[in-house]
Specification:
single chain, about 525 residues, alpha+beta, 2 domains, 10-stranded antiparallel beta sheet, 14 helices
């Protein structure tokens, strides 16, 4: 599996996990807000925005952009299928540079994961996701086909004469139905009156409505027409599609259920606005009558079909009480602001904490293993100065992993974005450019076959051929290329070979983190005493 493919799959897995956590947090916060402000339950915009926030954070996690300093960075080096292509102006010996450096952000060590365990995990999750998505889609398709079969067998289209004679509709309602182009069907099934479909919906009226008085029938029809006016079928269809796409996200399905409840409560309020208490009680009685009819009938295979005025789930007692109220409790502006601010805060935190991933293919150049493990020359190397003040080394040269048998080919310094990067010694700029893996990089020749290579820069302040003095600014640290966490990667080259920068940076191990030292020691590399 190539590094780019692994990164895409890893981002998808992280996006799924992040959406799960965020949806759970939003569901908990909004449910708590509903206990404080019960009127919040009838505002569909709150639940729509909550679902939109989950989708937004999910999509942000898929975008390969640098994360915030709060975001944990997961670094896995993934073997590539072939050598990585070098830029046109780059010598072939540089084409296998290690762009999979462990990342660092600020002063906090970043976690590193073993690629042996994680190599196939993202692909396995994608396989499970697609298989379950296909299964859920097939079930929905089968349910839709069964529903269509029931409609064909147990319903018929009402003609104009029947519509004009139907006492369940007022003249105003007939005019609105005609203007909207709604088809009206009557059915013998013991289902609730409902709008079926999104693009070309059909108003389904069960025959048992005739047992109610005319006023109740007209209120029921008004309820369904109000759903159409408020475009509720469209929003519910979108929410249902999201629930299908995020089938693994139970909290998001909770938000979908809360939206359906809000849609019904909001529709009730719109229908009963300004009506007398007698009409309110009649409307509530119609709901109770519908529940009794549906309780006595079961659809095929023991499945209940339809629900009175929408969802017949939790809160029906509260819904009936709300219908009978002269004026349902409204949500104050302050309550809206607090609920919105709390939800927005969770979304921002969720976006900031989305984990970042960094990886790059380890090139399979001939004799690369021998180069990486070549013994250091016995002669003394001229000392360099550090590329930044107060250096902090988070990864040492030569540290190996199952996916990086050649070992780490340089050292990493913790560096915030924008940290100035200086020349380690006087020389001439040999290269200054951009590579997909390295990002912005600068290579400086120091004479005698020696050169320093600095990659993942955020900005370059020099040009090829420019002479630089020791300590002169070359650019700033960043996270360009295959790195999504700000840091600086430094390599020491001698006669076309990478060597341990400890040979030219005095007391390097004294600037290394305990974790970096432990990783080196755990692989059987004895730590020198020149700390």
């Amino acid at each position: 599996m190539s590094a780019d493919l692994w990164l895409m799959l890893a981002r998808f897995g992280a996006a799924c996990a992040g959406s799960l956590v965020l949806a759970g947090s939003l569901a908990i916060v909004l449910r708590a807000a509903c206990l404080r402000w019960p009127a919040l339950r009838a505002h569909r915009s709150i639940w729509l925005l909550a679902q939109a926030a989950v989708v937004l954070v999910f999509l942000l996690a898929l975008v390969p952009v640098p994360r915030s300093a709060l975001a944990p960075t997961l670094d896995v080096a993934v073997p590539d299928a072939g050598p990585m292509a070098a830029p046109a102006a780059m010598p072939a010996s540089f084409a296998d540079a290690d762009a999979a450096a462990p990342l660092a952000s600020g002063a906090v060590p970043q976690p590193e994961f073993n690629a042996t365990l994680l190599h196939w995990l993202p692909a396995a999750w994608l396989t499970v996701y697609l298989a379950a998505l296909a299964l859920q889609s097939a079930r929905r398709w089968h349910g839709a086909r069964r529903w269509q079969a029931l409609m064909q067998a147990h319903s018929r289209l009402m003609n104009d004469a029947e519509l004009q004679a139907c006492s369940a509709m007022t003249p105003s309602q007939r005019a609105r139905i005609a203007a909207a182009g709604l088809a009206v069907r009557t059915t013998t099934l013991q289902v609730s009156p409902l709008l079926h479909g999104v693009r070309r919906p059909c108003l389904l009226l069960p025959t048992h409505l005739s047992a109610m008085n005319v006023a109740q029938q007209q209120l029921i029809v008004e309820h369904e027409l109000t759903h159409w006016r408020r475009t509720d079928p469209l929003w519910l269809a979108i929410s249902s599609a999201l629930a299908l796409a995020f089938w693994f996200n139970r909290p998001l399905r909770r938000l979908d259920e809360a939206l359906r409840e809000a849609v019904e409560l909001g529709c009730d309020d719109a229908v009963l606005a300004g009506r007398a208490s007698v009409e309110r009680r009649s409307y509530a009685a119609a709901l109770v009558a519908q529940l009794r009819v549906q309780a006595s009938w079961q659809g095929p295979a023991g499945a209940s079909w339809g629900a009175a005025f929408g969802a017949a789930g939790s809160g029906m007692t509260e819904r009936v009480q709300r219908m009978r109220m002269a004026g349902p409790q409204r949500l104050s502006g302050r309550a809206r602001a607090l609920a919105g601010a709390g939800a927005a805060g969770i979304v921002l935190i969720g976006a900031a904490l989305q984990p970042a991933f960094s990886s790059a293919p380890v090139a399979q150049a001939p004799a690369a293993h021998a180069v990486a493990n070549a013994p250091a020359p016995a002669h003394v190397h001229e000392a360099w100065q550090y590329p930044m003040p107060q250096p902090r080394v988070t990864s040492l040269y030569g540290v190996r992993s199952p996916s990086r048998p050649q070992g780490h080919r340089g050292i990493d310094f913790a560096a915030r974005r924008g940290t100035p990067v200086h020349a380690v010694a006087a020389g001439a700029v040999l290269e200054a450019g951009f590579d997909d893996a390295w990002g912005h990089y600068v290579r400086v020749g120091h004479g005698g076959g020696r050169s320093s290579l600095l990659i993942h820069l955020d900005r370059i302040d020099v040009v090829p051929g420019q002479l630089v003095a020791t300590g002169e600014a070359l650019g700033t640290a960043g996270a360009s290329g295959k790195a999504t966490g700000p840091h600086l990667h430094l390599e020491y080259w001698q006669d076309g070979r990478r060597l341990d920068p400890r040979l030219v940076l005095p007391h390097l191990l004294g600037h290394a983190t305990p974790k970096a030292l432990a990783q080196r020691s755990a692989q059987g590399n004895p730590l020198p005493t020149d700390l």
